[in-house]
Amino acid sequence: MRSHALALAAWLATASAIFLDDAYHTDFHYALLGLPKHDATFFQKPYAASKASLLYTVSDNGTIGAVNPKDGALVWRSASGPSSKGHLRGGDEQDTVVGAVGDRITAWSASDGRIVWESRADGAIVEDLEILEQEDGITNSDAKDAVVLLADSSPRVKRLDGKTGRAKWTFTDSSGDTPFQVSTSPTTVYYISLHSPLLGGGAKLRVTFLNPVTGKKTDSYTLSSEGEISTKDNILFAGANTAAPLLAWTDKTNRVLKVNIIGTKGVSSFNAPANVATEKIVLHAPNRVNSLAHFLVEYQTATGHSAEVYHVDLKQSSVSKAYSLQHLEEKGTFATSTAGANVYFTRLTAAEVTVVASVSEGILGRWPVNGSPALAGAYPVHGVSEVVVKGDVASAARSAVLFSNGQWALIRNSEIAWSRPEFLSGTVSAVWAELPEEEALAQELAEESHQNVVGAYIHRVKRHIRDLEHLPSWLQSLPPRVLGNLVGMSQETTVEDIQHDSFGFHKLVIVVTDKGRLAALDVGSQGKVVWTIDLHQFASDATFQSPSLKAFRGYVEVKDVDLSGSLFINSTTGGLLSSQDVKTTLPITTKGETLVTYSLVDGELKGNLGAGPSFEAVWTFTPPPGERIISYTARPAKDPVASIGKVLGDRRVLYKYLNPNLVLVTAVADSARRASIYLLDSASGELLHSAAHYGVDVSRPIPSTLSENWFSYSLTIDSASATTARGYQLVVSELFESPLPDDRGPLGALSNSSTVQPTKGEAAKAYVLSQSYQIPEEVSHMTVTQTRQGITSRELLVTLPASHSIVGIPRQVIDPRRPIGRDPNANEQAEGLAKYAPMIIFDPKWHLNHKYELFGVKNVITSESGLESTSLVFAYGLDVFGTRVAPSFAFDILGKGFNKVQMLLTVAALFVGVLFVAPLVRRKQINSLWTT
Amino acid sequence: MSAQPPPPPQWVVDLNSPPPSKPKNSSIPDPPGYTASLTRKERAISSKQSSRKAPTSEEMDTLKMKKAWEVAIAPVKQLPMNAIGMYMTGNTLQIFSIFMVFSLFKTPVMAVLSLQKTFAMFETPGTSNRLIAVKLTYILTNMLMLALGIWKVNAMGLLPTTKSDWLAWEGERTWSERAVPREWL
Lengths: 932, 185
What we know:
Chain A: Belongs to the EMC1 family. The complex is a heterodimer. By secondary structure, chain A is mainly beta. Helix content of chain A is 11%, strand content 41%. Chain A contains seven helices and 63 strands. Chain B is mainly alpha-helical. Chain B has helices at residues 10-16, 40-50, 57-89, 95-113, 115-119, 128-155; strands at residues 174-175, 177-181.
């Protein structure tokens, strides 16, 4: 019976999943795109008859996606591409958008993101992409063709069929020019390249005319721009798809603007406003064929911006200034929108949105912007807008604006309709913040435990008296808290809530992005961004490349290669702390322990005595010849173990080999296609265990993790090896002190042990049990859940990039003691061991992300919560995802289905019942005394 | 007053004056197995004849010892039934098996505690010496019951007899060295 109950419990545990009422409440997901690129972001109708339009963009990391402008929800997206260079164009009244990232040119169904066709450029990088809107002045009603420019040793211009993606013609440029861009007009395709003279110096702009039907070169001319242009970055604009495509560039000091109408040889020069130094010039022009040939030049200074509007006279091929918009002492930007032939410019600042027509400077609409806490202190960097103009008044305007703090927001008239924290897509490092208040209490408690009983008691009473000062505020906050609990209201969380969170679900995660932006997210309240700061304000001259974070009590330390020293940031406020404020302590070692540090130096793992790098190496691990170390994994610093042994079915004990100094080294031999795993004791450098796998695809990741007394890693088996099946393997090994139950190995019951100076001759080696499993998918990263005391069974969290998910594999499933080739006997059944099966199918219930699709997860970090049953999980990469897992179920908290109101009503009803019954009983007792 | 009551019915007359149980001088023998009711005189005579001589104190002691042995052996007689009961309840922790195990423990202990009271009625100057063996047997048999209880508790896994029961008191080894990756510092 007992064994059955245990087996049932084990089976229940393997079925742990997310409950329906927890999904979307305890977890959160930011489906991010990345920072949108200005020239490839646009509003467009997903199909010609559609009433609403979607917002399409390609981001700086090559993700193409569509966002619903109504609520900011992601409609579809493609996985992020290999290159940061992305292009996206959508033809007018088309049901596809054509995107190019790296060497892939893909047409996506605009409404749902399905691939219509795809074309590969064979190693060449797509430099530019345009849609042929008109052909010989006639609008093509069918699928519009795309013109792409491929950068290669010999640049090519290709026209791709809009339906199939096949090339209609190819023009190859063999002149050795650097390809820049293509531009189209109703009659001609222009190919613009940079012609660099042999003797160095500036580059000339060469414009080649191509026949859109045949792809034959019809004409070309060269513009003398040697004085200004040396690289592509000097060119401001090469307008596409307009009646008058423009080519504009400026000199290095941003003083002179030169504009050429493509197709003519004349160059017009304009001077930038002379009173303030212009930092950047941006040219905004409409990209519709039938719109007026007007454009706006924006001059950005260090603190403000101004603009001038120019008109192009097509007949005379001349450019003239129409009017100028006055300089504003605040940062802002402009966006272009069209309605029919009319062109409107929207001026976007953090405080105001104004709309002007291109023909005259009268303001058609003006909306003050209601601020939002997410956008506080930020200014618009670039945006796109849609304007509704009735008569001479702009009745509505909506603009999707990228703000300087990395938020992509939609401003609808005056209000911020939504904002997406796109800066989080660049997260490179994240840590769980530890709050200072917890530390204060922990310190007090530690103090009490070290005093004698009387002293500790007095200390405790004093502490409680001191705590009384919080009583009035606590009493005040009580009614709303109780009400909120009963009704289930969700309140706005603040840092204060995190400090008063008794379940420990509200933990802060501090993330840092590759661009040097630091943010704190509250995992317990849907990943709300509590604060965000730009690290450049503390280190203005540093350029961040791959900043790394480390958490201490109350603050985080930011390190980067370019940063001299490190920055200390307060975890709760985001403020800078000076290095005097922080206590530099080594939290890892306790008293009486010798510290050994190790690191990977020149392909060898070297261990040094002490923390300094100058010490001599006490041990060195060199992989065998032909192998190189690719990674190493240490046991987590915080890895509590509740039980030092494993109780067998017959109640004997297998003792776990618990060594805090274990390190798992992964090495590969490229030529032999072999992966080797070495388990070292990093104090002595002694090899405890090794395993070699042959026929391994060593180019694929080999993730590994180490926890408690077990480790696991995953491999991709190569298809080239004939003997073994291709696939993915998960290997799990467990370490015990001895193969015999009730035996503690050579060390016996000794409480002290040392691997450097072993007491009993040779240091005790672990007894290792391993099992490997076939898994259906490649694993890119793995980690283990963490709980407060380690009582709850652990779960192996594996990241599956192919199915965009994170799966929690219960520990029982990958127990290396599963009996092989036979059914488990009664004792093994009592332990919950099932018969070994070589294949692990990922149970859909194991997926932590349920309906979410997690793109580009680079790392998953776990943390304990206030409850023993629950571990907090946070994943980052492109997307940001957070959830809670309870591998042995939430045994210490009431579920959502628990009806608190009903319980209170029952108690009240019972109380009322007792009030009524009590006199009756009393009377009966008295009567019985009298009658006998 | 009313008229004279009617004469009583015949059955009342018969009931009040039963026929003589036995004709005095009848030669008809009584049927086998019938014992005629005795007259007072006969009764007196027969009682005089049947009153045996009172048992001697030795005989009383023997009798008491016999009774005492019966009491002492009684728990053993219950043992098989209890054992079957214990076997049938299984080794899971249920309210019934817990109650039964509790009674298995309580009964022998209470019996041993009330030892003197149980055997007080058999106590005579002549038996007191011989009763010691009986009492010892009684304790022994009760211990057998207790042993059954302990066996049951052990079968239920409640006795801390294996190493796993003391695992919580065993500590993790402390290591004289602590090695960490350099980047953790």
